[in-house]
Amino acid sequence: xxxxxxxxxxxxxxxxxxxxxxxxxxxxxxxxxxxxxxxxxxxxxxxxxxxxxxxxxxxxxxxxxxxxxxxxxxxxxxxxxxxxxxxxxxxxxxxxxxxxxxxxxxxxxxxxxxxxxxxxxxxxxxxxxxxxxxxxxxxxxxxxxxxxxxxxxxxxxxxxxxxxxxxxxxxxxxxxxxxxxxxxxxxxxxxxxxxxxxxxxxxxxxxxxxxxxxxxxxxxxxxxxxxxxxxxxxxxxxxxxxxxxxxxxxxxxxxxxxxxxxxxxxxxxxxxxxxxxxxxxxxxxxxxxxxxxxxxxxxxxxxxxxxxxxxxxxxxxxxxxxxxxxxxxxxxxxxxxxxxxxxxxxxxxxxxxxxxxxxxxxxxxxxxxxxxxxxxxxxxxxxxxxxxxxxxxxxxxxxxxxxx
Amino acid sequence: xxxxxxxxxxxxxxxxxxxxxxxxxxxxxxxxxxxxxxxxxxxxxxxxxxxxxxxxxxxxxxxxxxxxxxxxxxxxxxxxxxxxxxxxxxxxxxxxxxxxxxxxxxxxxxxxxxxxxxxxxxxxxxxxxxxxxxxxxxxxxxxxxxxxxxxxxxxxxxxxxxxxxxxxxxxxxxxxxxxxxxxxxxxxxxxxxxxxxxxxxxxxxxxxxxxxxxxxxxxxxxxxxxxxxxxxxxxxxxxxxxxxxxxxxxxxxxxxxxxxxxxxxxxxxxxxxxxxxxxxxxxxxxxxxxxxxxxxxxxxxxxxxxxxxxxxxxxxxxxxxxxxxxxxxxxxxxxxxxxxxxxxxxxxxxxxxxxxxxxxxxxxxxxxxxxxxxxxxxxxxxxxxxxxxxxxxxxxxxxxxxxx
Lengths: 404, 404
What we know:
By secondary structure, chain A is an alpha+beta fold. Chain A has two domains: about 5-175, Creatine Amidinohydrolase, Chain A, domain 1 (3-Layer(aba) Sandwich), CATH 3.40.350; about 180-404, Creatinase/methionine aminopeptidase superfamily (Creatine Amidinohydrolase). Chain A has eleven helices and 19 strands. Chain A has helices at about 5-25, 35-40, 45-50, 75, 120-130, 150-160, 170-175, 180-200, 210-225, 285-300, 310-320; strands at about 25-30, 55-60, 70-75, 85-90, 100, 140, 165, 230-235, 255-265, 270, 275-280, 335, 345-350, 365, 370, 375-380, 380-385, 390-395, 400-404. In chain A, strands 4-3-2-1-6-7 form a six-stranded mixed β-sheet, sandwiched between helices. In chain A, strand 15 and strand 16 form a beta hairpin. In chain A, helix 10 (about 285-300) runs antiparallel to helix 11. The longest helix of chain A is centred in the middle third of the chain and has 22 residues, at about 180-200. The model of chain A has no long low-confidence stretch (mean pLDDT about 95). Chains A and B meet through helix 3, helix 4, strand 5, helix 6 and helix 9 of A and helix 3, helix 4, strand 5, helix 6 and helix 9 of B. Strand 15 of chain A pairs parallel with strand 5 of chain B. Chains A, B: This is Endopeptidase.
């Protein structure tokens, strides 16, 4: 079944309003890449591709009769689809010239072209929009902790009468429960990541380097997975387990471990799965480590069901790994929520400090990674959807250590 | 000639120390993705790929007898090449387990695994490192305006005795003049971008969509440009000129403009060039606009030489464009420095507010972009190297409007 993005945005808005009621918040203002997209339905290229910060705002109101307002520069805003549901657009001028030679925009067209990013104009529009909606005092949730200092200062200046509270926790709570449309995207991104791995390993042999394998993975996505872009592909060969921005060109040798920890983007949603292979036969040490991690991972899969504490899954799986041949295994977390975050991992975490429980609709990555000097990387990572009575694995590749 | 990265890092350090002398700064601390790489020579995957902020620091001292100190989490630091010149490494533990089953690290191995990012540990190490070098008072330049607020607060807490000044201007000044090694990377990234465009246009015909062309461009880089990754490929077909994170699948129609504005990554350095094509014959309006932009662009190329004000290049080229058939052309800038910035554009700009002049060793993008409702995008963008007596174009593709 194909779910609808409009229904998704409506569902997000409804749940956001329940939280706003509970927390007595008048509006949520998203200014980060992922959260701007989450509340508005529109991904900003300036944010996603050019990595700019605080260049657009999505303002969602507690009052359900009010549309979400998108505040964006005129150049990017020209790409917002006319049928973006339940949104209203306000634009500010930027350094890019946009012309209207045929008068298509009528009186809406302005030719101002500043030579700097217009953060004051953007927050000025926010102040206007909030005032139009009668919000000149009370609590408004903004992404304080992810904004750069000059932006926070400009924001405080623009809306001096408001109590600005941190939006991070509210947005984490919202994003942790996926809508059916989001689950569809994540299911597809898992499938693409697995196609990428399955195609890539066909060409791996002794002598293959991490650099060659990384290129092969990108090519496999282009040619076999509908061109879906890789979000990250942390691929290691042999002992050099550290994540690399420029990949290692050392040829793989017999016995080398080959680890894929990869994520593929589908409509802004990203998978995060991992599998490990070995060139030829694994050493006894590797077999022992893999066995312990696998036992812990198997146990993790049994511990995911609604109402179960996330901390308990961490504690029990750590116990299994440590008592299965890796007594010194250690780790800050054994899993995390996934979805929009470009950092792959997002809260909540399966960690000792997590107080929450699993809920239906969560999509969780379960991982038992091992990195060892003189060994390399060993990982098994699955994505699961928490269902009404357990969980469903979204990826299907064998969890065995496979020889290539 | 192939220049050496070690010499590059030495050259950067020497120039940085001259600025530190002039500004009476004891040390520069880089915390952003690009600047951490610039000062340390090591690109952080956590920063580049996973887009994390404030996860590593590079500390460069005014005292030339002191090595640059890299402060980084233990997991990423394991990938720092042993021969990274003139650097000293300090690590802090992170949530990722790194094991030492064979005792290869001896007493240097610690098993602590916190479940959060350890920003306080990182800035604690900074405080220690500065104190070891006798810096407990005086001016230290840090990237205040690009750090998030919680990081600035944690930093101020860790080094209460220091006067923290903004590092942004110092780093902009440094980065604007390229070393021979950096020019080599940018020359290669221009060449790859042009190969990408030249290969891609071979397959474009009526019916091609922006989505198909974008996939073809990525494939061309993988198969014809040594797998160099695209940094951005803002490709538009027809009237929809706005930058798109998810590309338009509408088939191109006769008369549609096809615009490539693309950059390719080579060792962390990115080109930024643009060309425009047309499906069939251009309309008279498009011919008129293209002619005006081309005249302005030709004039820009004549205005780049050492000692010439950047503002003058802007003013004169704007005059040419406006008097060549586009009287209302407007724009915040007509060019910018390029190199490390993931946002493609970096200071200084060819803009009305720029006070600086061109210097040999600068790499500058010259652009005369036009976006029009009902028209689409028209761009010519070249990269040039400022030489001792003029400039050298780093890209070679025809600057004509070419029919496909």
